[in-house]
Amino acid sequence: ELLIAGFVLVMSVITIQNYNSHSFMFDELYTLSFVSKKISFADMMHIFMTDEVTNPPLYNIILYFWYRIVPAKEAWLLLPNLIFFIIALFFLGALIKSVSGKIEYTLLIMMIAWVNHNTFNFMLYYLRSYSLAFMLSAMTLYLYYKADKSDKISDCVKLGIVMTCVALTHYYGIFLVSAFGIYTFLQIILKKKSWKHLVAYLIAGSVTGIYLLIATAHRTKSLSSFWGNTPDFNSILDVLHVYFVDKDVVVVFALVLIGSVVAQIFSSNDSLDFTEKNLWRICFVSSIFVISVVFIYGRYINPEGSIFINKYFLVIYPEVLILFVLSIDFILKTIDTCFVSKIHISDEIKKSLRDIECIGICIIYLLLQFRWNIVGRMENVFELPPKNRSMAEYILSNSSDSTALLVYRDHGSQWDVVHYPVDGFREFYLGDRSNDIEIIDEISDAKKYDKICLWYTMFTIYETYDREKNKVAEHVLKDMSGFHFVEAYPDAGLLIFEKN
């Protein structure tokens, strides 16, 4: 327990220290505009019922109130993400300890989840809903297991409330709840569960259904197209890389998964508890269900509107983590039953062997990750240049009536809601001086100014400017005819042009 507490403390300090050097990127400016201090709560909800109907609102509701009680600094706004993440890990730790009886597995879960640069990228250093979805998904698993054990309607109600929250945090949460619901219904039909377990899904389904009906009725954005790529079978492997970072670890995960299936087939009924097996199955079924639904939709039903986005699958990360650790536990228990228990040694030595097995697995996992230079990768996350903060400092120090900031949109880009990130940038980074800067999003408006600071966004960075060659893309120079390129500030995401 002390080792786990020490690990959480050290990783939390590392995370918070690097919050101070973080700068919100273009995507996060959307979030800032949604929770702006200039708009009312009703106005924010209206946005999520119209323009931003593709994202459920719960994370932004929490952030809306948090933003009004803390200083307007990146570290303070990202702090809830860290809190959600730690809570999720403790729920997963409590769950795996209850199921397996081994606290060492809690440390393994924390290592897998935290010693992962994708975790830092998407859950701890990203002002979006993934950390909250991760926490709620972990709580869903924990309460599902608790309701499974107790068979109490009060636990089913708690599960229903948390399921509603995960569905209102991310749309993948709806797929996750659907998977749990289908699995539970089949168990009720097979008389392995009582009908009272449906209460959870009636709560989640009714509240989420009402929200979806209202949102789709008032939406102003088409749901037939989205920015995700059409997935292929390699895309599924890419999802596993999000969870386990590198190919070798993904191979280990696959082998462990297969081994656990074999262990369940050949193990005696006494060696593996029913609720333990049931938890493994719901994790397996829900993970496969969510990946399959999103894959089939993006591949065959609506390729133009594919929502197969790797980071979105962090919603089912708790299920994958528990699946992985339980699979290891099944294998070790089967080995223990078939071999270790038959060796004539004392029970104390047998217990010590089991503890060594768990600790050894933790060490092996860490060695696998460090072999792929996980520290170096996390340092790359920490050392990302503070683009938008640097950009604000530059344009504020070079502001004049003849200078404008141009939000550059690459050819083919259709951003009907480009004003959202601009509004977020104005409020958070320009503050009281936001009126000192002219911000335009049409190249035709650039002719009115002598100097243009071209803001190339995250969507066009690779097509717009070659940092190594200090070369601007030809189509950008063509768009900026009448101006000549002066210099670039890559760390600020700016290209400076002056009128010929």
Identify the notable features of this structure and list them briefly.
500 residues, alpha/beta, five-stranded mixed sheet, two-stranded antiparallel ribbon, 7 strands, 63% helix
Explain what the structure shows.
With 500 residues, this protein is α/β, with parallel strands linked by helices. It has helices spanning 2-19, 26-34, 41-49, 58-66, 74-100, 104-114, 117-124, 130-150, 153-167, 171-189, 198-218, 233-244, 247-266, 274-301, 317-338, 347-371, 374-382, 387-397, 419-430, 461-464, 474-479; strands at residues 403-408, 438-440, 451-456, 465-466, 471-472, 483-489, 494-499. It has a five-stranded mixed β-sheet, with no helix packed on it. A hairpin with a 4-residue loop joins strand 4 and strand 5 (471-472). Helix 5 (74-100) runs antiparallel to helix 6 (104-114). The longest helix has 28 residues, at 274-301. Residues 411-415 have low confidence and may be disordered.
